[in-house]
Amino acid sequence: MSVTAAMQAGAANPILWILAIPLGAAGFLAVLPGWRLATWLNVAVSGATFLSSLVLFQHRPEPTRLLFIDDFNVYLVALTAFVGFTTSIFSAAYISRESRAKHLSDMHLRFYHAMYQAFLFTMLLALVANNIGVMWVAIEAATLTTVLMVSLYRTREAIEAAWKYFILCSVGIGLALFGTTLVYLAAQPVMGDGADAMAWTLLITKAAGFHPDLLNLAFVFLLVGYGTKVGLAPLHAWLPDAHAEGPTPISAVLSGLLLNVALYALLRFKMLISTNPETLAPGPLMIMMGLSSLFLSGFMLYRRGDIKRLFAYSSIEHMGVITFAFGLGGAVANFAGLMHMTMHSLTKSAIFFAVGIITQNAGTKRIADIRGLTASHPVLGWGFVIAVLAIAGLPPMGVFMSEFLVVTSAFSKQPLLALPLVVGLLLAFGALVSRLQGMAFGPPPPPNRRAHGGGNWLGTMMATVPLWLHMSLVVIAGLWLPAPLVAWFEAVAKLLG
Amino acid sequence: MLQQFSYDLAHLIGATVLMAGFGMLYQRRLFAVLNTFAFQALALAAAAAWQAHVQNAPHLYATAAIALIFKAIAVPIALHWLVERLGIHRTVETALSIGWTMIVGVALVALAIMLVLPVTAKAAALTRESLSIAMSVVLLGMLMMITRRNAVTQVVGFMALENGLILAAVSAKGMPLVVEISIAFSVLVAMTVFGIFFFRIRERFDSLDLHFLETYRGDRQ
């Protein structure tokens, strides 16, 4: 194939666009002086990535050895690009306030924007990678970019959080690599040497013939490895610190997107293991880790004094519920898991948008010092109330729908497991609602000297519009899911087995 | 005959990597840990080069070169320089005594062998033993990260773990992307450790002892 033909093929392949836009932008933003232009460019580029991800629904390219798109990852690519886009809008408002308060220097902001796009690139690459080795490299690079961003503020706490994140997640991805090597070793006798034995679309067709013991061993390493990145208990220790100490837009994409991507990697391997009839069922292990995450975070939520840590623990809880649902398996539970992934992503990032502005207005992250939000900032405060009620699982929001589906399928399949699930969900519900009351209602406190809110109407609007946009999607999804979306979720649920 | 020789040499080099893993646990002085790590990386480079020769896979020479230049030379020299420059304590602080660490290490190696050998009964002989050695090196690296408190020894422990992973990857016949994986690891370590942490931790705490992590639980009211 000549160079021009290769370039034409590249131009026609939307996957390459989705990867090239954020990668090129990361390089450009790294050398672009002046943060004002950079924030806008960040928004524009994220928007372009989102638009090109929509092309995938119209035109799905043929899988290659390196990249592929199927029913499962196309929706996660679109979700990731969408939340990446809305977060970049929020980030523009957040950064301009931080910069006015002189919390970050120009150099840091240039670095921040370059890393934001690099982070989006690594997540999208992990989602579309057909080669399990490339997927691993992408998730490793995502760890690197986020470690650097968590340490951005250079406070003592930020450095400690980033160090903890680096140590724990590096060991985690190290173990995931060992698992990946074991999968290759299991595949090699059947598929032969080389790249074929790492291409997921080829592996899934032949996995029934792989050595089952090797696959079992591999899955344990992959579960522990990628599970660390999902934040499953007891491997969750890095997650609350990393969420609390980094810039809030990063907390939003960490919770809303990165945890999903790590879980996606795990699910791809689960699909592979499940096709082999002689392997251990991966379900019970996932159910166990899911339930322990749910319980641990359910109890931990009650003792949180820091607003960002509170919602970080809530992310552990929801990842636990999702892992539980996929562990249970079957059409309904998988459907619920997929829907919960989407709903949690939208709701949790919306919460962090609100939390970012709230902590800037209040000048503190202490829950005890944040009061009367609905009185002092009605648009923001009520958006926050709706988002927290949604994440706590109150109807009619989408999170309630998916949690309800998880519980009903647990009742029909394993009634004994449904009991701890319901108890855990109620625990978390109680904690979140009791915390919300103090923050949302009552008289607002006198202004704090460390507060750095204010700004023009455009800034305020850019911070609240993404919040309300996400919440309206979540509410609509709770009341009415469009029929094509349902059909499509069902198809993916079947794919997951 | 020749094949038997290539197996034996591969196992000898693998066992040298493993012994260096034990050697690191045994050291009481920081510089000795760094020297032992450099030796382990050297052995890893030899293992990768030998596999490149045996499997007739020239790209593994690149992995060997990365292990030799980055891990066996650049990282130990840079860490030496940092330890001297920052005036870090030159003795290794242990959370578990050296004797107990060695006993746990032996148990971990036994576990790795018992786990891997039955599972890989049908795989090629070379892969079987190399895989159990590699898994032992990984577990010893984790043990080092857990039982040694200092930030420098933690990083060295992580890189020892990574040596085990690379050893597994080069022993898996025909595995693609090994070079990319070793580059990805090197970039992770180099950027995180040298770019950010050592300078910043120094800025803030005047110490590289991670003890301070224990006084900080983030969220006490």
Question: Globular, elongated, flat, extended or rod-shaped: what is the shape of chain B?
Answer: globular
Approximate helicity band of chain B: over 70%
Rg of chain B (C-alpha, Å) = 18 Å
Terminal-residue CA separation of chain A: 39 Å
Largest sheet of chain B: none
Number of strands of chain B: 0
Strand percentage of chain B: under 5%
Principal-axes geometry of chain A comes out as: globular
Could you say which structural class the secondary elements and strand pairing of chain A correspond to? mainly alpha
Q: Number of folding domains of chain B?
A: 1
What is the average per-residue confidence, as pLDDT of chain A, rounded to a whole number? 89
Fraction in beta strands of chain A: under 5%
What is the number of E strands of chain A?
0
Largest sheet of chain A: none
**Average pLDDT for all residues of chain B:** 83
Describe this structure in words.
Chain A has 20 helices and no strands. Chain A has 497 residues and is an all-alpha fold. Chain A has a domain at 282-497. In chain A, helix 7 (156-191) runs antiparallel to helix 9. With 221 residues, chain B is mainly alpha-helical. Helix content of chain B is 80%, strand content 0%. Chain B has eight helices and no strands. Chain B has helices at residues 2-26, 30-54, 59-86, 98-119, 125-147, 151-171, 178-205, 212-215. In chain B, helix 2 runs parallel beside helix 6. Residues 212-217 of chain B have low confidence and may be disordered. Chains A and B meet through helix 6, helix 7, helix 9 and helix 10 of A and helix 4, helix 5, helix 6 and helix 7 of B. Chain A: This is Hydrogenase 4 subunit F. Chain A: The chain crosses the membrane at residues 15-32, 39-57, 72-95, 107-128, 134-153, 165-187, 217-239, 251-273, 285-303, 310-332, 338-358, 379-397, 417-436, 457-481. Chain A: GO terms for molecular function: NADH dehydrogenase (ubiquinone) activity; oxidoreductase activity. Chain A: Residues 129-423 form the NADH:quinone oxidoreductase/Mrp antiporter transmembrane domain.
